[in-house]
Write a structure and sequence with these properties.
By secondary structure, the chain is mostly helical. The protein contains 9 helices and no strands. Helix 1 runs antiparallel to helix 4, helix 5 packs antiparallel against helix 6 and helix 7 packs parallel to helix 9. The longest helix is centred in the C-terminal third of the chain and has 20 residues. It is globular, with a radius of gyration of 17 Å.
Amino acid sequence: MFFRLKLFTSIVILLFLASCSKTEDKKNTEIVKKDTTPEKVSDSLDHIDRHDHKEGELCIDPVASKVASFSMEGKYQEAIDVLVAAKDVPGYQWDKEKIYESMVYLYDRTKQYEKNLDVWRDGHSKGIVFKMDKTKKHFEPYLLLEGFDDIYEKDLEMQKSIEEDKLK
């Protein structure tokens, strides 16, 4: 339980502060429309220059803001839909690792465990390490899913590779 609370708190904080976008005009506050296809999300992000901000200015990414808002309202599927669309928007600058971590959390929260298998595979193909630990109670539902052991082993290999690179 503590792990999930800590993870959720971290996700909310990171969602709000992970990326920067100038939010001066009303257009920027109308973040992601109801239609969360990659094209619509891309259209809603086109006007944003994520790197045009003053030092010390609080910058909120529109997708992160929308995901956090949906999550706090318990609208997890809507948050998932925004993340799925945002991860496929070409040129979108938000930290892809945070998108994947948030998707894992939300699929777990909505008990869509099988979908996390695809998220982990896709993340691994992009070099994202999830630092899995199947001894944690949190991973119990996944232990029964076909393919989880392979994904877990891949994650361990990637973790080990990173640690070996640090030692060099």
